Amino acid sequence: MKTLFINIKELLQTRETNIDKVSGAEMAELPTIKNAFLLIENDIILDFGSMEKCPTEADKVIDVNGKIILPTWCDSHTHIVYAGNREQEFVDRINGLSYEEIANRGGGILNSAKKLNETSEDELYHQSKKRLEEVMLQGTGAVEIKSGYGLTVNGELKMLRVIKRLAENYPIKIKATFLGAHAFPKEYKENHQAYIDVIINEMLPKIAEEKLADYIDAFLETGYFSVEETEQIMLAGKKYGMIPKIHVNQFTAINGIEACVKHQALTVDHLEIVTDEDIEVLKNSSTMPVALPSCSYFISIPYTPARKMLNAGLPLALASDFNPGTTPSGNMNFVVATACIKMKMTPEEAINAATINGAYAMGISNTHGSITEGKKANIIITKELNSYYEIPYRFGSNLIDKVMIDGKFIE
Ligand SMILES: [Zn+2]
Q1: In this predicted model, what pLDDT tens digit does every residue of 206-259 receive, in sequence order?
Q2: Using one digit for the tens of pLDDT, what is the confidence trace for 260-310?
Q3: Which of 245, 344, 355, 361 is 20 to 30 A removed from 190 (C-alpha atoms)?
Q4: Pick from 144, 147, 263, 122: which is nearest to 207 by CA?
Q5: pTM for this predicted structure
Q6: How far is the CA of 349 from the centre of ligand 1 (A)?
């Protein structure tokens, strides 16, 4: 089945030959074709180019006059699988409590863990699939989902099984990350090593046996997992082929990035606080820095210093951090807009960061993240727009007409 899109006002992120990521000054360049066609066969991009070279043979022709087409967003950092929500903490924060104070009175990650352990696997699946369906309609075509609200062997397995079930039942590409090291359960507050031993000796072998995770994560932060503790987790995960993707430098810089690079982490995520030394360490590494601007927006913390990092030649990916506590939104259109508005990224840089670099941050840039022959037919068709600058500019509007994932329109 061949589907031909014609009269595309502008086709974005067109790459003749595949690249795995873009860095530094390259991020300011977004290759596009004006007045373009796009030919799809089943779930694969077959051809694209200027309307002058438009093929005549197709089973279905769709005229998208005035509309822009771009690859779907690649959201490389989410916690979409969770139970209940935390709107009470949202109001507590409005009334002046800090993230730490909320955590100290039993809120935060431990609150989500309590709810998750009280929720059945089926119920967790039904709550989570609604969020997955929502982000697909918002243009996300590939997503990474973390565990980390179980913090018990059964809770972590339950989350990862739900992620697996979502991956089996939906066309969106899903990568799973084991985040047992998200926080220390109360009973381990005074004995960190005992919980790390549970992660390494009890959780990891079972997760590996059921092939439930692609990556391993930890919350490397003052008051959470230290550099040394995170290194133990990274090493243990790597033994099972789980590459590290680490939460780091959200509130403090404690040389965590250096440890992540040393252990060949695929990504370092958050980075609201970045030192000159951190930037030096990231240069000449294959580790992708990932910024989560919706989180900075929601809890009023600094934004990742994107300009400083791009000027130093680093790549950057953008992700949502969709989670019940600090970012109850998985809307990548808002992420892209916020990166432009608050981090002073150009629309070209932000779109690169949310497509090809997001794909790299999930290890899927050979199949996702750009309009390239042979890649997945994952596209966003916008409403009629003057230019793609409107995507970040009209930050509160829904500018998406249709989303196609794996060659099928999402309803
Ligand atoms: Zn996160």
Answers
A1: 999 999 999 999 999 999 999 999 999 999 999 999 999 999 999 999 999 999
A2: 999 999 999 999 999 999 999 999 899 999 999 999 999 999 999 999 999
A3: 245
A4: 147
A5: 0.97
A6: 22
| Structural domains present in the chain | 2-71+367-409 (2.30.40.10), 74-84+111-360 (3.20.20.140)
d(CA 368, CA 378): 8
347-354 helix and 332-343 helix, angle to the nearest 10 degrees = 140
Distance 18 CA to ligand 1 centre (A): 29
Alpha-carbon torsion (91, 92, 98, 101), positive or negative:
negative
DSSP letters of 285-353? S-PEEEE-HHHHHHHT-PPP-HHHHHHTT-B-EE----BTTTB----HHHHHHHHHHHH---HHHHHHH
- Supply angle C-alpha 130, 296, 383, rounded to 5: 55
Residues whose Cβ atom is located within 5 A of ion ligand 1: 321
Contact 155, 113 (CB under 8 A): yes
Maximal CA-CA distance, the chain: 70
Joined tokens for residue 94: 């409005």
Please identify which residue in the block is written with the tokens 């007409």: 401
* Residue showing tokens 């791009």: 310
Distance (Å) from CA 308 to ligand 1 centroid: 22
Distance of CA 109 to the CA centre of its chain: 19
Residue 175 bridge partners (DSSP) = 144
Over residues 296-307, the pLDDT tens digits come to 999 999 999 999
